[in-house]
Amino acid sequence: MSARAACSLLLCLVAGSLQLSIKEFVVPKAVEVGKDAELRCQYQLGENETEVALYVKWWWTPQSGSSYDRKQIYQRIAGQDAEAIHHDNTSTIEIRNDDSIVLLDVNPVDSGTYECEVSNIEEIRNHETLVVFSMGTGPEINYTFIEADNEEEEEDTLLIECKAENIAPSPDMAIIFQGEKIDIVKNVEDIDQDGYYDIYGNATVSVKDVDEGEIHCEVFYTTLDHPPYVDVETYIRPGRDAPPTAQPAQDAIEPEPTHESLQNSSGDAGRVQSKWTLLMFAGVATYLQATQTSRL
């Protein structure tokens, strides 16, 4: 490579490094429902550039939308005040310095792709996806023991059901019985079209020769890196934990005294007292007789 060619390449690199650029772009990947989300977009002008023709815009595309659904939510045109553009069901936007904006008290509808556009004759863009999540309520396990019909030679089965409500974004579910994931029938729906989903799943498994088993239900996201929500229940075969039927030994109880027994007891005491009285008089008589005999 000649010196002139090398110099030309160096000038091109220098010129390229001095063009309009976005030096800081921040969109949080995940924000919990009810919290605020700050979006930052700071640019740097090229050498000898001015802001005479500058404008900065923020765009939002709903999570389930396409490029045709893209909506402008912010703009600042050189020489004019910055302006936030609100849309139905989305959060209020607070304007900060340096073309940063804050989505206040976010809800699932705010999920989507956020794009910052900076233009000063030439145009540059950057974008990132934000997901608003909610753990909702649940999951909650319910199970029902179904006893076999001996006439049809069926096996005892267990109906396992699990549900969770007001989850965002759209969730998935898994049910695990005795350490093994089982096939389930699932239903996920956003009834109110507000970004909150309800999910329900059920499965029927054989519990032949199974007296006890652990049931896990996990609800998780497929578009977000977040720990699953888990409920755990223990199945115990009906009757296995029944209390013993043997009657405890009772202490011997002495019979209560009756009116007749009290009368008999009183009569016995009177007869004993009469015998002592007769013996006493006999003793006195014997003593007196002995005394008279000695005097004679």
The general outline is rod-shaped
Mean pLDDT: 81
Under CATH at level 1, the class of the largest domain stands as Mainly Beta
Q: Would you list the SSEs in sequence order as H and E?
A: HEEEEEEEEEEEEEEEEEEH
Per DSSP, what share of the residues sits in E-state strands of 2 or more residues? 35-45%
Task: Determine the N-to-C terminus distance.
Answer: 177 Å
Largest sheet: 6 strands, mixed
Taking all Cα atoms into account, the compactness measure Rg is 46 Å
Named at the architecture level, the CATH assignment of the largest domain is Sandwich
Number of helices: 2
Based on DSSP secondary structure assignment, what is the total number of beta strands?
18
What is the CATH homologous superfamily assignment of the largest domain?
Immunoglobulins
Helical content band: 10-25%
How would you describe what is shown here?
The protein is α+β, with helices and mostly antiparallel strands and 296 residues long. The chain folds into 2 domains: 116 residues, Immunoglobulins (Immunoglobulin-like, Sandwich); 100 residues, Immunoglobulins (Immunoglobulin-like), CATH 2.60.40.10. The strands form 4 sheets. A 6-stranded mixed β-sheet has the order 2-10-9-4-5-6, with no helix packed on it. 18% of the residues are buried. Pfam families: V-set (PF07686).
